[in-house]
UniProtKB/TrEMBL annotation, chain A:
Keywords: ATP-binding, Nucleotide-binding, Transport. GO terms for biological process: quaternary ammonium group transport. This is Spermidine/putrescine transport system ATP-binding protein. SMART domains: AAA (SM00382). One of its GO terms (molecular function) is ATP hydrolysis activity. The keyword S-adenosyl-L-methionine does not apply. Transmembrane segments: none annotated. Residues 10-240 form the ABC transporter domain.
Automatic annotation (TrEMBL), chain B:
This is Spermidine/putrescine transport system permease protein. Keywords: Cell membrane, Membrane, Transmembrane, Transmembrane helix, Transport. One of its GO terms (biological process) is transmembrane transport. Belongs to the binding-protein-dependent transport system permease family. CysTW subfamily. InterPro entries: MetI-like, MetI-like_sf. The chain crosses the membrane at residues 12-36, 129-152, 164-185, 217-237, 270-292, 319-340. Its main location: membrane. The keyword Membrane applies. It comes from the Bacteria. It is a multi-pass membrane protein. GO terms for cellular component: plasma membrane.
Amino acid sequence: MTPTPSGMDIALSGAAVRFGTFQAVHPTDLTIEAGEFFSILGPSGCGKTTILRLLSGFLDPSEGEVRIGGQPMAGIGPSDRPTALIFQNLALFPLMTVWENVAFGLEMRGWKTARRRARAFELLDMVALGGQGDKLPSELSGGQRQRVAIARALAVEPAVLLLDEPLSALDLKLRQHMRAELKQLQETTGITFVYITHDQGEALTMSDRVAVMNRGRIVQVGSADDVYDRPATAFVATFVGEMNRLPGRIESVAEGRARIATAGGSFLAPNPGGLAPGAEAVLFLRPERLHLLAPGEAAANVLEGGLVRRDMEGAFSTLIVETGAGRLTVQRVNSGSGGLPAGPLRLGFADRAGVILPAGETADDAA
Amino acid sequence: MTRLRRSFGAPLAALIVLLTGIWVLGLIAAPQVIMIEQSLWKMDRPAGADELSVQIDRLYNRLDMLALDRAAARTLSTPSATDAKLAQIDAERAAVAAEIADLETRESTPVRTWTLTNYAQMGQAHLRIFAKTILAALAVTAIAFAVCYPIAFAIAKLEPPRRAALIMLALVIPYAINELLRVFAWQMILNYGGPLNAALGLLGIGPVPFLESGSGVFVAMVYAYILFMVFPLYNVLETLDMNQIEAARDLGAKTWQIHRRIVLPHARPGIAVGCIMTFMLSAGSYSVPYIMTRGTAAPWFAQLVYNRFFQASDWNVGAAYAVSLLAVCTGFVFLMMRLLKVRLRDIAK
């Protein structure tokens, strides 16, 4: 491999995109560090692909500015930016052999055939496709094609690699494998990765930081732990991972926590937004933070309910429990202790387990 | 056959086979076979025709002699001798007349001779016209491609789908008008006293003899057959994934490089179909050169074929001319397929 190219940082300042009257991206400030694996996560139509096109240069911001490596990108087209884009459908050139695909960027830069062929085979070796260079893309498997697309993008030695849901066409096993490969590739090359996805699993496993987008706005930027454990809005809470929802009204507040009165009882949970007593709010609660309580066991928050259904999923089982606060989902680790106690179930959760957020748009509304 | 019967039942299967047979025979085989057969023979005088005509002349002389004998016989002395003589002469005359009729039929019934000489009948002048027609058809094809490729690309890739549909409709409308009307209209436009020359006259140019110089044929022919180039190109370009173009640009390709490396290779089947159709139609066009030149410029080859059939009344040579044109056109098809590395299967798509 050639000397490790270093990534560049990216800065959007007040960048916005309008298509006619449709505001695809509201004015956005965003900084992506050099060498970072940064994901933009959101439902389809949220504007994440538009941001990617802003970075790749296929689109100019209606207002605001894009800087890559400190350089303003206004007026610089896709071919002259230090970025390379990996398309959702990969967009390999079907009439060219694999090595010609990989060498395409070098061909455009005027490299001689022998030199670019040698470089293409080097890159193919790097992505474990050593013997496949003379085949056509159509003769490769999905995962192999994926690697060709990566090699083709890396051939032009970009400082920023932009990936538009490149794993969505692969089956689950391969997807998980490719996640690890991409992450490793990012670490060895040191290139800045900007990864667009609607799959929260991809975003959480690979990224240094994740931006969650909805309706043209970035609603939260943070580490995977941040967005999963400390969602900033009802949308983030519901879009990332499973979430139980218990709507209610704030009763009292103390030390960053609040007590919320719901139809299933009154519960104590963190109140990051500093909601005042009397405010309409929702208590969000992850299924894995709800526990079955043994008889006599105590918890900060307790509610009772009857079992509706139990889905055995192997490593854990999912319980659907009918409570005063509606149907709740409980995830229970398979500890080998066997079945459930008969009769009504007592559920408990810690006073730091949930999060109270203002009622607002959730992922289900958007869908 | 068994599979057809299993899927559609015997009567329907028989119908399908019958219709396919009619198609293959009637539309593909029969016209070519007839034309080739016609070109491979000519009617000749029968063998020994010269001796026959000498013999016939001799018999006519004999008939005249008999007529004289008959006149002389009337003056014979005894009526019975006269009658006997007359009967004898009449019998001989009838026999001679019958023989003449027989020989004349034999002499005048031409014999069909199988020969390749029909193909050798093209004189230098006709060969030149043949070559000129092929070159002109190639030029029409090239011009049509040069005009249509940017149009087809722009409609297929740059316009939003609804506007693309509208533009395609606008392209098709002229073709709802009869070809004759369209060509006549262009004939009038380009005429010596036509509106184009009138407009040029205002600018102090001309008048330009468009029709007489033969350039009118070009204009009308590009106009008449351009759609056969646009549609195959449009169809094939429409299937090009826009991401391919963007990927190429992202990797640093300039516009001409994108076309050379991505768009044109993808469009190969459409280019082949468009070129083949345009070339075939313009190489074999009869009405366009006929109307546009009205005999004031050198004829196109199709007109020569027509003249062989109807003015020279030599159907065999006409057929040979037609088959020669067919051969060149078929050669062009295979050449295009070879050049563009397109297989028949791609074209069929």
